[in-house]
Design goal:
This protein is mainly α and about 180 residues long. The chain has 4 helices and 2 strands; from the N terminus they run H-H-H-E-E-H. It has a two-stranded antiparallel sheet with strand order 1-2.
Length: about 180
Amino acid sequence: MTNGTYNGFAKLLHWLVVVLLVVQFAVAWTMPDIHRDTKPVDLIAWHLSVGMTILLVVIVRLGWRAMSTVPPPPADLPAPLRLLAQATHTVLYGALIVLPLLGWINANARGWTVRLFGMFPMPSLVESGSGWGHDMGDVHQIVAWVLLGAAGLHVAGALYHQFILRDATLGRMLPGRG
């Protein structure tokens, strides 16, 4: 942290997650619907691999955050906005962990092996044919919408700080600052 900004590695991980999420949602909306006889190839394989990458990057990010000094929010931020920011970050991190895990569970229930970058097989989290695992596919879709909403709220908050409050909050996470 320099002058209230996040360090370069924290910024890199933040923007890497942003890029991965944009790719992930684009792939999710363009891949074919998944049915009983669907195979995990092409866009579906990409979706699984990008999801695993997001999970790994978020785990690294949380580890880095736990070991680093996180800049405090602006001192003059009203308590309700501080609470909203904390809640939004909690939902974001929670969804960024839970969403890939739900997809992984659902894939395993379908008998699919989840591979990182198409090469490294990940262990199965549930048995093939698991009814509970199949149900997690529906929960996965709901959590994806929650993540999208939380990300939208996060972006709206950053823009609110930049254009309404006119404070330096957005600059704390921008590359090349601090």
